Amino acid sequence: MTICRLEVSNPAFTPDNTQFVTVHSSHLNRRHDVSIYNVNAQTENVPIIVLMHGVYGNHWVWMGLGGIHHVYERLRSEHKISEFVLVMPSDGGLRDGSAYLPTKGHGNYEQWIMDDVITAVQKTVENVTINSPLYLSGLSMGGYGALRLGAKYAEQVSGISAHSSITDLLELTEFVDHSLDAYDCRNLHESNIVYWMNKNKNKLPPIRFDCGREDILYSGNIRFVEELKSNGIPHIYETFEGEHSWEYWHTHIVQTFEFFSDIQTHRR
Q: What are the UniProt keywords, alphabetically (predicted)?
């Protein structure tokens, strides 16, 4: 039992269609938080999108800084996307960012996402079940998390979409001051996205990602695209005007919702 306890917000006092959950996790040996939107979803086995934030962020930033629930509702009202539950976890709270990786003695932030967070949503949102399709998305460090976890756990994931992504763990040093030695990458390939994509090449879900041309991570994304091409890994890559900013992510989360919705349509 990896979840020791769940504390769930009261809908009478919570913003409409929103839920906050505090998860007491044995993977982290402490408490961390998840924001969930569209908890009143009516679809049976409603699919979930796990949205991973970047360095310095927390569970509330997707809504509180990115306003993505407004984008989701607009697209739904225009009948452009199918129904999802939006799951927005803390990265686990390691220093400036956990990178959603295992660490040496600080907790397993990979299993926090792939075990604790998903189980917590299944336990607290009525129409989310073990049969709900799982989609992974993220921005910056969260984009790295979505690409890496989606590739490593390919059989569990229905689609991957990432924005302004760190594509090599070394790029994390652009944002943090601490040593990368904290991350448990004793296996040489553990942090390498392309390694996991090659390892699970025949199982990979559809993959898309994008980056702004003025983004600090743009050149890294271009190198990553070339690496995927040289390894024959199918993907969609898009570039747009924009920087590493919430304005960019608020605008281009549309591509994620539409991409996942298209996958759902073809699943039926």
A: Hydrolase
